[in-house]
UniProtKB/TrEMBL annotation:
Residues 1-85 are annotated as: Disordered. This is DNA mismatch repair proteins mutS family domain-containing protein. Residues 11-22 have a biased composition (Low complexity). Residues 717-733 form the DNA mismatch repair proteins mutS family domain. It comes from Labeo rohita (Indian major carp).
Amino acid sequence: MLCSSTEEVTPGSSSEAGPSSSTVTPHNLTDYRHVIRGQQDPPSSSVLLTSHGSDDVRNSLCPGSSTATDTGAQATVFTDTTPTGAQRQLNITGRADRISSSVGSSVFSWSSNTPHLRATPALLHHGPTPQRCLNMTTSSSASASASASHAASVIVAVVEGRGLARGEIGMASINVKCPELVITKLHNLMPLEVLMPDTASVKGQGTKLYNLIKETFRSVTFTAVMRKYFNEKKGLEYIQQLCVPEFSTVLMEVQTKYYCLASASALVKYFEFVQNSIYAPKSLKVIFTGSEQTAMIDAISAVNLELVVNHRDHRSKHTLFGVLNYTKTAGGERRLRSNILEPLLDVVTINSRLDTIQELLQNEELFFGLKNAIAHFLDIDDLLSALVQVPKQETVAVAEAKITQVIQLKHILELVPSLKVMLSHSKTALLEAYYNSLEDSSYTKGSLTMRTQKCYAVRPNVSEFLDIARRAYTEVVDDIAGLVTQLGEKYGLPLRTSFSKTRGFFIQMRLEGGVLPGGTLPEEFIKVTRQKNNYGFTTVDLMKLNDHCEEALKDIFHMSYVVVSRLLSDIYEHIHCLYKLSDAVSMLDMLLSLAHACTVSDYVRPEFTDTLAIKQGRHPILERISGQQPISNDSCISEGSNFVIITGPNMSGKSTYLKQVALCQIMAQIGSFLPAEYASVRIADQIFTRIGVDDDFETNSSTFMVSYIIHNASAKSLIIIDELGRGTSPEEGIGICHSVCEFLINLKAFTLFATHYLELCQLQTLYPNVENQHMQVQHVRTEDGRAERVVYTYQLTRGHSEERNYGIRAAEITSLPSDIIQEAKTVAATVGQKLWAKHYSDPATVRQKAVYRLATRLLQTARNSRLDPESLRHFLKGLKRQYEAEIQSAAESVENEE
Ligand SMILES: Nc1ncnc2c1ncn2[C@@H]1O[C@H](COP(=O)(O)OP(=O)(O)OP(=O)(O)O)[C@@H](O)[C@H]1O
């Protein structure tokens, strides 16, 4: 068994000395030296500092996702349903929905020669280099639903059909996994910016789709793009030009997805425009995902269930994501998050994940070895994202960024062999497939690594001019050091050379005694700053040398850039390897995280049948919050008993139980173990929740969700409805609940329906597939013996609640006069008797129900049973006895009532 703690090895740190003077240790300079001097193996932490200042690269998340099969095999990459994390990929999706369009006017436009920008696109605020841009985006515009580490960085283009194609929606996103249903999936993408055609979005006359998206994503920037840029022909051309050849089968899939292609064209054009760079040919991973591959969880349900965001505190980790997240990489974290929002449907894929988790749990060495190997990876997607952009202009900053990317690439590639060694110890199909996918990659055969190595930090003798420029730089740095030494001797002062990004080289002096000899500084020392006893200044000569230094550096960067660019064009040929690596690392990280979660709590591997049967299930988040085991409960929903009505007084645990079932379902479908003693799950294609909000039928807020469920639920859905009708009058509430129940009862979906209206429990006698259950409570007398107090057991039991007079009991504890309470009880009892008297069933109905139950149980047994013949015979005999007893007791109870 594994323990919950894991060791984490951080990359080593630089021990690099200054260029010419032992006193010069500016950070930037140290970083440059890695590039300039061509060290063999720069320590990785220095590399991190080079590109991101003091920030750890792994913390600079750029959410995105890649889609790849769990097998990691290239041939099946497109069929995967898994939302993941590749940063630089183009996702395309299409969906027919019934949303109409209308007209508007343009806000953002290009002309063929001079780009003309009239709006302020979100990306333009974020600095020149792609990486920095994305990182800043992360912090500046987190969507409401995002935790800091998952903030928005995805741009989505959406277009809807017109004329005959009205209702069809095409969507393309850069970086992320694509959605099927626009709102939900947009929610999953957490877009930073949404592009829509000007004709759909202006002058207060936006289309329904536009208004809906705008309403849902209040903090997201909307950019109207001229309709002509949503051009499907161009979209197809872009994909042909940009797609990595290994992923080009996507062309077959998208050829007729006109609106997707149109969105893709607007998106690519826009992105290149605002980034002032173009995508390198054959460098993008382009994916098309269809709706059939993942389960649908609408945005409201995701919020209700606290899948990735906590209700009360958006930063809190008390969410399903928080419970399962032990990932080590940004890609793994993104992948887990998007999987939770889009669980899988394919049992084979889910089982292969579960097999892997099981192996990780049984093989400690593999678990810790892989975890350790994974923890060193930088954000591959982030790097990919930067690598595939070819800047339109060459500036020092651009050159510096590209060189940094190459260094990061080298760091990442160096980690591959140890990852492969660990994977070679695995026995499960999934890990083997990932091992093979890395094995196939040409970088592992050395070509890419060799080239990177060669170019990394641009070694001497690669470029003659570069060598000259470097020598010039080193000489200037030596001159600076000499100048400062001379000045120190001349004035008898303890001067030393320093460097800062803003000042360049300057002189520093610390006076121990606190008083200057002679009272003032020599006149040639200018631009003096002082902090206590620390002086900083420069001289005219030093400033001139600084300028020389800058010039030399610029030359070095430009020349290095030329070499690096050559290298990058080689890298593009192998870019698919990086996509595969990113896929492998993020998936492994996610599976390790899920395995880790099993070591923290007692989880069980689910199996998949046509029944939802959970023994002693627990609420995963409640369990984590309370630090102690919550009360566990059994759940059983099957084809013959697929509509469960749950009653119980306030605070008895109904909502918690409902959410528990939904969360366990989601956990099972992402391939996680779950908190129970045993679990059998039926794959749900959609999970709907409508949970505890006051219903205001005038503003339509409640009916929206219910009608959404009614219109979209299928036979394979899981529906959770809690307190429908709350906030309305009892008559209205019961009426609405009744009709909604009657509709849902006729579906084959699994439904859990919690309510305070005990009247609904009669549905059990009318429909054989309805089952009543309730949250048990106990009543104890208060200490003075005057009233009763309710003790919650949180225990779910068959039958309906008897807590009809809960309100009266509550009143008992107050100071209401006892005769009033007595009167209330009498009235309630009479009304209750009358109501229940109406609900008895005639013998024929009772019989039919027993027959129905027997038939469904037999069917279920035929489909799922793994019993040996003897046990099966025994089981069937039991069923027969139960059936006879049901008929007998039902008949007796009817006689009694008569
Ligand atoms: N299985 C459980 N084990 C331990 N504590 C629980 C359990 N279920 C619920 N609780 C606790 O009881 C509180 C009330 O639960 P919950 O909100 O689910 O009740 P409810 O019946 O839905 O209430 P209401 O009808 O007022 O909405 C929760 O905040 C939780 O802390």
